[in-house]
């Protein structure tokens, strides 16, 4: 069980917000394969508030897209509060505040991980968002373990964390890399264990270096966190959710998805992407997902190159028919156990 304020999840694995990835098409693929809670991509407060197409798109929540979390990023307490309230009114059922993003242009505008250095502003934002949401749904905060490895940076982390719970936020999501570390090196799971011990019964979700179901179980067992958010590990691998369910229910891992099943999921994901973004843009967006899906194919390198070579939307059908033909005697699919291909530069993995 994972309790976040007024909600209780029987499955403590949440699909994380991923800039450039966790759109409606990806969320539908995740739900199809066992995800319960999913998050939209991180949203800038000013885009939620400014009239126009961005606001309309952000505040349109489809009937089949529940339960849905929204993650907000900004630097002004009042704007963050108004944006959070608008998202709740639109149908988002969990608000997370991002103080973790390490992308340079985000930091340069005083957002994301920059708030790990500005305790007073960070707590003012959390207080404003909490008051604006007013108990209508859970509010959490996403943190990295500090700006850098200095003792002062760690002290600020715990000031923000303790302040968040004094404000009565419903939990925190902790990525145990520093902001300066970005996406390099190993995430420090021992720090997660320290955080969980420090907060006691309050809810902590962990993230970082979760590439397969076994990683999820190890994090839960070794750190004591209450739940996890899956980021890079579920891009092009929505089956990881049903694999996590099996292991957490003490059942064997389900069989690796065979090639025809992979093809059917890619085709559905593609159709959702084109319906959401239009044929041309949907085709372009889908290519980065397909590269990750290809890692599960027994002929991974050849399939990857075939997806990279797609220039026009009709070519998708040709590639899927060729490489995922159910009439061919394919070897078993591969199970992902590591990071695989890197995600696009500048993408928020948290």
Under CATH at level 1, the class of the largest domain stands as Alpha Beta
Q: Overall pLDDT, averaged?
A: 93
Content of β-strand: 5-15%
- At CATH's second level, what is the architecture of the largest domain? Alpha-Beta Barrel
Question: What's the end-to-end separation, in Å?
Answer: 22 Å
Q: How large is the radius of gyration? A: 20 Å
Do you know the CATH topology of the largest domain?
TIM Barrel
Number of helices: 14
List segments where confidence is low: pLDDT < 50 over at least 5 consecutive residues: 342-350
Number of strands: 11
Q: Which secondary-structure class do the elements indicate?
A: alpha/beta
- Report the order of strands and helices: EEEHEEHHEHEHHEHEHEHEHHHHH
How would you characterize the largest beta sheet?
Answer: 9 strands, parallel
Overall shape: globular
Helix content: 40-55%
The total number of structural domains is 2
Name the CATH homologous superfamily of the largest domain: Aldolase class I
